[in-house]
Amino acid sequence: MPTSSPRHYLMCPPEHFTVSYAINPWMDPSQPVDTGLALRQWETLRDTYRRLGHRVDVIEPVPGLPDMVFAANGATVIDGKVLGVRFANPERVPEGPAYLAWFKEHGYDEHQEPTHVNEGEGDFLWTGKYLLAGTGFRTERAAHAEAQEFFGYPVISLQLVDPRYYHLDTALLVLDEENIAYYPEAFSPGSRRVLERLYPDAIIASAQDAAVLGLNAVSDGYHVVLPAQATGLAARLRERGYEPVPVDLSELLKGGGSVKCCTLEIRA
Ligand code: ARG
């Protein structure tokens, strides 16, 4: 029976959000962005978490860092240990120190600056047992070994192959310790086999659900906050006993992110 547990999230308001460069296929700098609308949609997401009983802390956005709203990329935190990030694209590099500074200021004494490129929870998804780790577009394979050494949990490396699903959290959703949903076409044949072996009962997302970033969702073990456009996935989740909680983040989709991208989980 899916059961929720209280969570602790870090989020960053999209006060400076815009699309001024393109580092993934979703971003088109010639398309107008409504920053006010992005902010209102983000506030709805924050309020949804709080209504569900979760704690949300907020980090101050830095002017000139339009992608800082995508807090999932800010760190990976397990057992109160903080692995900092190193971005692949120069546009986002300054976000790494900004997020690490927040953790230092808030009393997280066990932290490490990474040697290899890793984009935090964009590519590292904690199941409670394993750290599922994406590579292919952003996070380097060497960073998987670095994370395993730092956290002391088994890391499962997964190869991403479709540029639209450039981060693991755009193609795979952790529901709880035993269950995931994913879009197989985003992975190499070998990685698909790995996922089939580990999760034979996984929910398989359709191309339509993947294309609205439906898998870029956040589960507390029972409630699954997901992009409102992912109606097929919501139905599948309901069948399995989860409670889908749709939220519209259409404006942030122009940056190539949705619910999960805006949410960094802090695990004590
Ligand atoms: N524009 C951002 C980038 O391309 C979006 C990041 C989305 N974050 C995520 N966790 N998938 O880096």
Automatic annotation (TrEMBL):
| One Pfam family matching this protein | DDAH_eukar
EC number(s) reported in the record = 3.5.3.18
Q: Show the stretches that span the lipid bilayer.
A: none
InterPro entries (UniProt xref) = DDAH-like
Which residues does the entry assign to the active site, renumbered to this chain?
A: H167, C261
Which GO terms label this protein's molecular function in UniProt?
A: amino acid binding; dimethylargininase activity; transferase activity
Q: Which UniProt keywords apply?
A: Hydrolase, Transferase
One GO BP annotation is: arginine metabolic process
User: NCBIfam families given for it?
Assistant: DiMArgaseDdahMtb (NF045659)
**Sequence similarity:** Belongs to the DDAH family.
Question: What protein name is recorded for this chain?
Answer: Amidinotransferase
Q: Which organism does this sequence originate in? A: Carbonactinospora thermoautotrophica
Per the UniProt record, the lineage of the source organism begins with: Bacteria, Bacillati, Actinomycetota, Actinomycetes, Kitasatosporales
